[in-house]
Amino acid sequence: MSDKLFLHGKPIEGFEEVHEHISPVSSYMKVFGALLVLTALTYAVSYMNLGAASLAVAMFVAVIKATLVCMYFMHLKYDERYHVFVFLSTILFVGIFFTFTLFDLSSRDEINEEQDSFFQRQYAPEAGVSVPVYEVSEHGEGAEHAEGGEAKAEGH
Amino acid sequence: MSDHHPTRPGGSEPHAFLAHHFNTPGQQAGAAKLGMWAFLATEVLMFSGLFLAYFIIRMQYPEMVLGAHEYLNKTAGGINTVVLITSSVTMALAVRSAQVGDTPAIKRYLLMTIGFAFVFMVVKYFEYSAKIEHGMLPGKFYSAHEHGYDIPGLPHIFFAIYFCMTGLHGIHVLVGIGVLTWVYLRANKGHFGPSYYTPVENVGLYWHLVDLIWIFLFPLLYLVK
To answer: ∠ CA(B115), CA(B117), CA(B118), 5° rounding?
Structure first.
């Protein structure tokens, strides 16, 4: 082992020991209390009729609880910043995953409609085919051909 | 363990567990912790798929989800939330005891954490048995209507996501019991002290993540209106 260790060109002192911030027991107890209060709050909120806002409120409280656990129990507050970066970039990618998928789902009806009318304008009149009508039944069993037999034979 | 750093009896000696490819205990601890955070990232991503599935189901069948979630036992879910949060505190205190070098306290807090994990699984067992008994099961196994429960819509989809999410989380709790026991056995041998407590800390990080996931699962599955 060398006598001197360098990190980013600077010598580091005391590399023989593990340097970690040691939180006092009282700080863990405070976080514990806060988590219990927030759990009770989530529970109480679910009995109020907040309608559409209840999901937002529940998620907001859950995010506060998660932040407390990450910062104090998982030591991210005192840890190397790089671990915070790893964790937050994970959350960022989860966000991208959620946003794009939900965006796709919520805009899909519109696109399907556009596709259908495009098909109708372009091919249906001349070809004399009946355009398949996709119906999503109440039970969500997916696309059902109402009168699509002919078009299927022609097109695909 | 290399020849340069043999394991000494009473491993609280400074470099008893320093692998030969690391220069300092701090470097080794830092590398292990970064690896743990990378693993936790993959865990978050794995669960995010299930959370997204939940949100999609909720978006497609809002009334069915609201109707079916009433059949989950809120009290059991609430008790389990408190149990997991408490176990997270005892885990954090176990890590702190390792940092200050108090081995009896590490063992005590680890045993408490393992105990709470078992309480969680026992509550889960009663919840699952009730669901199975009432036929509130995923997909083709759903038979609640035969047991006199008329849940409108497609509740078998809700129970599919319920069992997937709580099931995967439950597997994590079981794995947690396993690794906590391993850390307890090592603590029992006196392996941990202020200069080496990486396993305690990393198992702690894992356990806090299991708690974190439950913090989101509980309101989404049990409470949300």
So the answer is: 65
Q: How high is the ipTM of this complex?
A: 0.86
The CATH fold of domain B25-223: Four Helix Bundle (Hemerythrin (Met), subunit A) (1.20.120)
Say yes or no: A36 and A15 in one domain. yes
Tell me which residues of chain B, numbers 96 to 125, contact chain A at a CB-CB cutoff of 8 Å.
96, 99-100
The angle, 0 to 180 degrees and rounded to 10, between the axes of the packed helices B198-217 and B74-100 is 160
B205 lies within 8 A of chain A by CB: yes
| A135 SS3 class | strand
3-state secondary structure of B162: helix
pLDDT in tens, A37-89: 999 998 888 888 777 788 889 999 999 999 999 999 998 888 888 999 999 99
What's the CA gap between B165 and A35, in Å, rounded? 22
**How many CB contacts within 8 angstroms connect chain A with chain B?**
146
